[in-house]
Write a structure and sequence with these properties.
Helices cover 53% and strands 0% of the residues. By secondary structure, the chain is mostly helical. It has a domain at 24-57. Helix 1 (24-37) packs across helix 2 (41-57).
Length: 59
């Protein structure tokens, strides 16, 4: 049987999609952060969630 082609499977797949509503100001800030970090909107949001979670654990 031939070896499977395509991208390798991720150890941590991102298979859940979450949508939220944001005003223009928030989207502008998100885009500004993504551009400054050279990353995607999703990565900025993930980093923000991690930061909030760390703050909660620190209390």
């Amino acid at each position: 049987m031939p070896k499977k082609m395509g991208r390798p499977l991720s150890a941590n797949p991102k298979d859940t999609m979450i949508r939220f509503r944001a005003d223009k100001s928030t989207v502008d800030k998100l885009d500004e952060c993504a551009k400054a970090l050279g990353t995607s909107r999703s990565d900025v949001i993930r980093k923000g969630i991690d930061k909030v979670a760390e703050g909660i654990k620190g209390k």
